[in-house]
Amino acid sequence: MLYLDHFGLDEPPFRITPHTDFFFDGADRGATLDALLYAILHDEGIVKVSGEVGSGKTMLCRVLMERLPGHVEIVYLANPSLARDEILHAISDDLKTEFSKSRITVALRELEEHLIGLYAGGRRVVILIDEAHAMPEETLEQVRLLSNLESNRHKLLQIVLFGQTELDVVLDKISMRQLKDRITHSFRMRPLSEAEVGKYLSFRMRAAGYRGPDIFSPRAVAMIAKAASGLTRRVNILADKALLAAFTENKHAVTDKQARAAIRDSEFGRLLHERRRNPVVFAGVALLAGLILGAGVQWWLARGIDATEPAPVASKTPAAVPVANPSQPSVPPPSAESPPTPAALPAAPSGPAPAPAPQPAVPQGSATPDTKARPGTLAEATTSLGADAVQRLAGYKPGPNPLLKERISAMRERLEREPDGSYSIELFSTDNSDPARVERFLVRARELVPLDQVLVLPQLVGNRYRIRVAYGAYPDRAAAAQAADRLPPKYKQAFQTELRSYAELRAGL
Residue 120 is part of a domain; what is its CATH number? Predict the structure, then answer.
């Protein structure tokens, strides 16, 4: 490439093809990779990674394939147009075995037997499905059936879906609800912020062999970040063009001049320019129309007023303005997609991930177990559990798992004691009610948070139990929201937390 010697580079720093040596682990990419590795190696079922076009999903997938240990068999499906029966044959090709081509049910049984043999030999199998948003629904349904392949205690097959944001839309369909319910973790590849774009550009330059001071000026970084909408593929395109512009001008720094030239030379840069220009035009037209309309209304009103009527006098008393109740602040719902970290990951859905931050102090569940509601508040009355609810709670068998027994008992006590208006932080809920699995989560959880505040609620749904794991008890929603903000970063990344009133928790029994 023309500018390599000019900038002292060993190789092109901003090519758009995935090159794992250029994997940027900032902006939660590294945390997401660690969480994916953990999920695959610890029987976490189906995992979903979604993001905009050019956000780095394929790069993440390639790095994941390199980082998986040698005892993991990888099945990589890059063709999204596979039919339902073809996906089994694609799996058999990667596993170097043969399945029946006459009947799907027979092929599934043969696959299960093969997976059991691999598992007995200490090997695991993971299927990485790229471009999953473009898969036919019947093929995605076959993926769900594959997720059912398991032994008494272990998943025989781990599945990771990589797809554009359209994948979330597909999974929201009623016909896809069974597959969606089996997704234990969801990660979102969010766009880079301006500061992260600056770190990304510096990282890629140095990974390519550059050893000098940062080439991209702060103003150039800001322009590239905005024009690229934080998407790494676009950042690569603009940075490459900007370096070429600096080279042609015999410059050794990229300023706003070169960044502007790169933006003008790109398709999405021109679209962004048009979007910025059009609102000005539309605003001028709207203002002119508003003036004309306002003059017309005034003329019409002047004609309609009876000359013998005195003109109405404007009241000097200000209109009543609704005042927000400070004791009930608005709490935004938690993000849909946060990437989990490997410290403590149960089978739980998750969502967009916050940037890594120093671990704050852990919230102390409730003020005290004997805290009483203040008179006149919503939490004034206490509701104990009915006999039916107690019976349903007792129907769940925790087996020989002491922590699980203790935490279910603690939840029952809270449900019998806490007022309806008290709140708890629901960390996650899951259909996988295996007691040993929940016990393993509790063992990991006590390393991060006070275990006496972790509450386990088995809920009977139809003829199966669903597990909800909550944290603490707080006098109102605002206090619970503040406590949720103080959760360890690993929990805030791993779980899509919800604030639940104790009335709501009791109603679910």
Answer: 3.40.50.300
Name 499's bridge partners. 425
Q: Are 32 and 154 in the same domain?
A: yes
Running DSSP on this structure, what letter comes out for residue 150?
A: B
Q: Which of 133, 168, 189 is the last residue in one of the domains? A: 189
Sheet holding 454-461, edge to edge: 454-461, 464-474, 423-430, 498-501
Q: Are residues 171 and 32 in the same domain?
A: yes
- Do 500 and 473 form a contact (C-beta atoms < 8 A)? no
What's 363's DSSP letter? Answer: P
Q: Read off the pLDDT of residues 320-346 as tens digits, 9 standing for 90 and up.
A: 333 344 333 333 444 333 344 333 434
Domain identity same for 13 and 40: no
* Residue that the structure tokens 């003008």 belong to: 264
**DSSP state letters, 254-270:** B-HHHHHHHHHTSHHHH
204 pLDDT tier (thresholds 50, 70, 90)? very high
Look at residue 426 and give its three-state secondary structure. Answer: strand
Write the single-letter amino acid at 436: A
Mean pLDDT of 395-418: 90
Whether residues 12 and 115 fall in one domain = no
Do residues 85 and 172 both lie within one domain?
A: yes
Q: Which domain holds residue 59?
A: 28-189
Q: Do the Cβ atoms of 458 and 415 come closer than 8 Å?
A: no
What span, in angstroms and rounded, lies between the C-alpha atoms of 398 and 436? 8
Question: What are the φ and ψ backbone dihedral angles of 84, each rounded to 5 degrees?
Answer: -60, -45
pLDDT for the residue 236:
95
254 - beta bridge partners? Answer: 216
User: If you ran DSSP here, which 8-state letter would residue 352 be given?
Assistant: P
Q: Which stretches within 3-43 are classed as H helix?
A: 4-7, 29-41
Residues 206-253: pLDDT tens digits?
999 999 899 999 999 999 999 999 999 999 999 999 999 999 999 999
The structural domain count of the chain equals 3
111 and 36 in a common domain: yes
Q: Are residues 160 and 210 in the same domain?
A: no
Mean pLDDT computed over every residue of the chain:
78
The domain boundary, picked from 265, 281, 296, lies at 265
Q: What gap in Å lies between CA 191 and CA 14, rounded to an integer?
A: 17
CA 43/CA 437 separation, integer angstroms: 10
Q: Is 80 helix (H, G, I), strand (E, B) or coil?
A: coil
